[in-house]
Amino acid sequence: xxxxxxxxGLLVTGKAIASNAASAPISTDGAGVDDxxxxxxxxRTACLPYGSxxxxxxxxxxxxxxTIGLLILSNVFMTFAWYGHLKFxxxxxxxxxxxxxxxxLLEYCFQVPAxxxxxxxxxxxxxxxxxxxxxxxxxxxxSVFYLGEAFHWKQGVGFALIALGAxxxxxx
Length: 172
Hints:
By secondary structure, this protein is mostly helical. The protein contains 4 helices and 2 strands. A two-stranded antiparallel ribbon has the order 1-2. Helix 1 packs antiparallel against helix 2. The two termini are 34 Å apart. It comes from Pseudorhizobium endolithicum. This is Membrane protein. The chain crosses the membrane at residues 62-85, 91-110, 130-147, 153-171.
């Protein structure tokens, strides 16, 4: 099948795996129901416009890795945007807000592609659950190593209960 441009202008093609055929984004062009078109996997530069012609291809088996990898990157940026300013309490609030917005923009450059790539392989509830588990993990590392705060066992129990909830989201 020759490469095609998807509805968002990205050039991505391949064959869907039969077990994923019901959940993967499918677009047929008469060549067969196996044909799929997916959004951009890894931008060569952050925040490439969706109309850019990168010609990247992503295999269905790589979708979870691409999604989770991009979500980890986005959560590192968002954690710094939301909590990094706590080390700079003497800085004017408007400066902290502007810097946080700038960091959050970088976070969106990874979060939006992660959700586009992952949706269809994962449902929306699963994407949100993955994001929340990653958020808690990144936050624990951030609060201990960047903010120098102690991790208390009660926090561990609370996070474990959230992980138990994630288990139920992913079981059939």
